[in-house]
Write a structure and sequence with these properties.
The structure is a homodimer.
Chain A: E1 9-14, E2 26-31, E3 37-42, H1 50-58, E4 66-70, H2 79-97, E5 104-108, H3 118-132, H4 140-149, E6 158-163, E7 169-175, E8 188-193, H5 199-211, E9 228-233, H6 243-263, E10 271-279, H7 282-293, H8 296-303, H9 309-316, E11 332-335, E12 338-342, E13 345-346, E14 359-365, E15 371-378, H10 382-388
Parallel strand pairs in A: 4-5, 8-9, 10-14
Antiparallel strand pairs in A: 1-2, 2-4, 3-9, 6-7, 7-8, 10-15, 11-12, 11-14, 12-13
């Protein structure tokens, strides 16, 4: 169960013919209420896709009745025609579900700079609308079909659920395997809940959750133009959720989906946690960890099972003093539990490090304070190069 | 001819046994005067290698009699012992050449976090010292041996010369194939001249030249801990160089070496010029071009001969408004002369772009001003991953 786990939600995934592969490529998640509260976080990329521009307008009143998502095309850098396609898609959903188009979020993912086929899109919306009227539209199978329909280079759907003893539930689905380096938001993620919460409460909880989960995933340093995380509340449980408990459960769910995204990142053979400890501030810990996560040399070494810790420190050293306080010669580095560097000098032999497991931890102790942060990244592999050298062709 | 082209310089390259391959791995370039003026630019990485820490002290008085360079080890993150190794190397050179150790620059390149073998180093310095006393120590062959001795993963030596009708000459050699993303300086570069110029004049000319050449090379986004560009003047021509003419020739020579470094970057199959036009300021053009040069998705697409211009704009969009002024929907993109995007919408079909040549140009017109800049980068290839996944092992 994922987005259909909370009461009040139905979902569908259909084949609209947008993907060359012929698989499921269009999903709708609809909120049957009684509430239609929502919060979203969008990409901070200035090159925002048409669905983002549309959805930002939808969010002006914090009300969302449904969200439609397609793979097979990002509808980004497609100009006025592309925006009209997004608008027409929302109108088609509104007509099928008898809601206002102004309450329909649109998400698209795929190649940038190509027009989507509106005829196929609207036919897909019609099929999905029919499926949503089906008895099993609230089933786990329906949620799974929606999660499958938003996949691009993902090899498996990503779903997660959190159930509160208080009587409410959160469900979520996500897609994303490349261009995985969000700024404020990431990929396409739809989260549903039947808790009773206002749009403002949802917004607070969602921003806090994404800040420490999706925002800390930096698989390949590339920020998408289409990233959207949406949180829809139906209130169908009738339970007023404790905001703190809800925020905790939401963060756990987002963390679950984040690690699923990391585990399925394009071509990756290692899931790497860059853990910075004893920084002067959390933001500085994030800055240092992100610099390491963006070092191609470090990432290629991890692929080769090579504990080349000099590349960790060379990346750390690129951070200016204004951005992070630390003594560059007072840093410790441990890789998979082996302390290879203490106070800027070699410690345990690098040969002791076992990098054969998929999970890798790199702990960087800055000795500059008490704050910390983790960035999740992946290695740089032949498969990553292969997948991304032949994406549009 | 390279560093030995200007009068007053001798060079040697010998095998000290530091490289596993058994090739040339230690070079000395000595200035026989009459002047010993010099300027240097060092890496802006805060994790500076021991040779950088030493050489910064040497430069306090702007006097340099000789420079010793080794491959086979970076002598970075090697602590007090590593610094003593650098100091002892300078003392050995001083003894061989009968100069002050305080006038000997030291450069090292190779793996970080391993001690250099001082016995091998000093034996190598002894051999090089003998070679420098040879009659042909000022020959082109001697310069070539020095250029070969500083190679690491380079496949060929890099040399360049500029000759002024006024009667002075500049020669240069460079090494660098990975960790190619300098901040203020880059790789190991030694430039010699027989022009009569003060250390202050050399410093001004060198900073202006590196700013628009080595600093604009960003092959893999990784900044080294050991980068040093040195400019030594012997004054042996007896000609007072016009500072503007000298700066122009020096910039041309640095540009020549920069393009040689790009052309030999690890595993690269394309040399890509990211040309940003009509930016509000030169710094903003550099920022935009650098963001594109660091997009792994863009670089992998170029490797695959895929003109995926959406990845160019997605990278441009990551730049904040504070860092560069532009309308994200008003940008034009041309790849190898084909205008694939005009004002944020598809223009000529991407299929018209021919990416089979090694040289690629990506022109990004921001329509935000009149400034421009070029960043030189490379594609992301299987060979890059291969070379860098098995470097220390």
């Amino acid at each position: 169960m994922s987005v259909t786990a909370p009461a009040g939600f139905v979902a569908a995934g259909v084949t609209a013919g947008l993907k060359k592969s012929g698989g499921l490529d269009l999903a709708i998640v609809a909120n049957r209420g009684p509430l239609a509260n929502a919060a979203t976080v969008f990409t901070s990329n200035r090159c925002k896709a048409n669905p983002i521009i549309w959805s930002q307008q939808v969010m002006a009143d914090g009300r969302v009745s449904a969200i439609v998502l397609n793979s097979g095309g990002a509808n980004c850098y497609t100009g006025t025609i592309g925006f009209q396609t997004t608008h027409a898609t929302a109108e088609a959903v509104a007509e099928q579900l008898d809601v206002s188009a102004g309450d329909v979020l649109v998400c698209s993912t795929g190649l940038i700079g190509e027009q989507l086929d509106l005829v196929k899109l609207t036919a897909g919306v019609f099929d999905a609308g029919l499926a949503l009227k089906d008895d099993d539209a609230a089933s786990a199978a329906a949620g799974l079909a929606a999660a499958q329909a938003i996949m691009t280079t993902d090899t498996r759907p990503k779903q997660a659920t959190q159930v509160s003893p208080a009587g409410w539930t959160i469900g979520g689905m996500a897609k994303g395997a490349g261009m995985l380096a969000p700024g404020l938001a990431t990929m396409l993620v739809v989260i549903t809940t039947d808790a009773v919460l206002s749009s403002a409460q949802l917004d607070t909880a969602l921003r806090e959750a994404t800040r420490v989960t999706f925002d800390r995933l930096d698989s390949d340093g590339c920020m998408s133009t289409n990233d959207t995380v949406s949180l829809l509340a139906s209130g169908a449980s009738g339970v007023d959720a404790d905001p703190d408990e809800f925020a905790g459960a939401l963060t756990a769910l987002c963390r679950d989906l984040t690690l699923q995204l990391q585990g399925d990142a394009e071509g990756a053979s290692h899931d790497v946690a860059i853990i910075v400890r004893n920084a002067a501030a959390e933001t500085e810990a994030v800055t240092v960890a992100r610099a390491v996560s963006r070092s191609n040399l470090f990432k290629a070494a991890i692929y080769g099972n090579d504990p080349n810790w000099g590349r960790v420190l060379a990346a750390v050293g690129t951070i200016s003093e204004a951005d992070a306080a630390f003594d560059p010669y007072g840093i410790d580095v441990a890789i998979n539990g082996i302390q290879v560097c203490t106070a800027g000098e070699p410690d345990e032999p690098r040969e002791l490090v076992d990098l054969t497991p998929r999970a890798v931890s790199v702990v960087i102790d800055l000795h500059a304070g008490t704050a910390g942060a983790t960035i999740w990244t992946n290695d740089l592999t032949h498969d990553y190069v292969e997948e991304n050298s032949a994406y549009s062709s």
